[in-house]
């Protein structure tokens, strides 16, 4: 983490709206963000998490975890909570910053609150991939795209996960200030290698099975790879392993492919 941008957070109050993070990368992003070693001194952090994520989010003396069964009740409940309750909660509790990992801000901003939003989902801006989704999912993502563009336009800072995302999304709207901070794995997470659960060599793809994760495309590419000279040069057989929740409509489609 760059030290300079963190200096202005000393003695500040920050609220993190993490109610949308329920599994996978969203939760990992939050946990990396609120590690005690990364936080500047005298920073007060409050974070709301989804009811289903309680116990999965890191907690320590510098973090105040808030729960809301109403905000965890679905997209409509979350929208109502974020727009009719959250702005007043932030104002009356004197928060200086609000961080929005989901990239959706309340329409109302009270006082001198500064808004930091995060762009983590490039699917919203990929028309080709959107066309592959079921009609309901397609329109849901189109609505989210509109809300994100509004959020980025009206944020004090937007954090992108790559320069590619930054350059592409900045074509849609004027952004006051932005920065690219790549996703990654902290070096302190490195552990001594453990014994493989399989007795064969394999390539591992870790991801829940949803349409936009591209498992079918990976399977098709794998089939092409196995017919190539590059594969024939291997001294032993390689297998492809998917690791993630497969109890989805797309998961059933992948199994049949």
Q: How would you describe what is shown here?
A:
- This protein is of the alpha/beta class and 257 residues long.
- It contains ten helices and nine strands.
- It has helices at 3-7, 24-33, 75-84, 86-92, 127-130, 135-153, 163-169, 215-226, 229-232, 249-256; strands at residues 13-18, 44-49, 63-67, 97-100, 114-119, 157-160, 178-180, 201-206, 238-243.
- The chain has a seven-stranded parallel β-sheet with strand order 3-2-1-4-5-6-7, with helices on both faces. A two-stranded parallel sheet has the order 8-9.
- The chain starts with a helix and ends with a helix.
- 18% of the residues are buried.
- The mean pLDDT is 82.
Percent in helix = 25-40%
SSE succession: HEHEEHHEEHHEHEEHHEH
User: What is the averaged pLDDT score?
Assistant: 82
Question: Number of helical runs?
Answer: 10
- Low-confidence residue ranges: none
Termini Cα gap: 42 Å
Number of strands: 9
The helix-and-strand class reads alpha/beta
CA-based shape: globular
Radius of gyration: 21 Å
Strand order of the largest sheet: 3-2-1-4-5-6-7
What amount of the residues lies in strands?
A: 15-25%
Based on the structure, what is the oligomeric state of the protein chains? single chain
Largest sheet: 7 strands, parallel
